[in-house]
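Q: Please design a sequence for this.
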């Protein structure tokens, strides 16, 4: 992996605001990384100083070995889980300029 991609992934994760979450796939897509697994590898090796707890699996759940600590940190930021799953429709981060993909409103 090149250093530019590595730093880009770190910058994007760092920009996920408190009270929101993103998936490994979201971060990979924004960074131009070849796979969400690469994002996970970067977090595992070099993510101790990042808001790693805001990054979830595609189904809205933390990795099993992180579940307790991750959900506790998210709860402290106002992100509530239903069991061990975070509602991505409610809490997913939308980077600036990204349009809402929800159903159209009445007005």
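A: Design:
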């Amino acid at each position: 992996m090149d250093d530019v991609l590595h730093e880009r992934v770190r910058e994007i994760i760092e920009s996920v605001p408190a009270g929101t979450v993103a998936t490994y796939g979201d971060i990979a897509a924004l960074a131009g990384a070849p796979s969400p697994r690469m994002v996970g590898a970067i977090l595992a090796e070099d993510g101790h100083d990042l808001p790693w707890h805001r990054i979830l699996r595609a189904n809205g759940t933390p990795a099993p070995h992180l579940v307790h600590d991750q959900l506790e940190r998210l709860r402290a930021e106002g992100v509530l889980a239903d069991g061990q799953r975070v509602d991505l429709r409610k809490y997913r981060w939308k980077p600036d300029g990204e349009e809402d993909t929800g159903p159209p409103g009445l007005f």
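Q: Thanks. Anything notable?
A: The beta strands are 22-23, 55-56, 81-82, 85-86. The two ends are 46 Å apart (CA to CA).
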